[in-house]
Amino acid sequence: MKTHPSTCRPARRGFTLVEVTLVIGLMIGLSAIVVFSVSSINSWRRGRDASEKLRSVYLAQKSYLADQPSKNYATFTAAELIPYLPGNPGAMPTQVGNSGETLSINLQVMPPVYRNGSSAYDPSGSSTDGLWDVGLP
Question: What is the pLDDT of residue 9?
Answer without folding.
Answer: 66
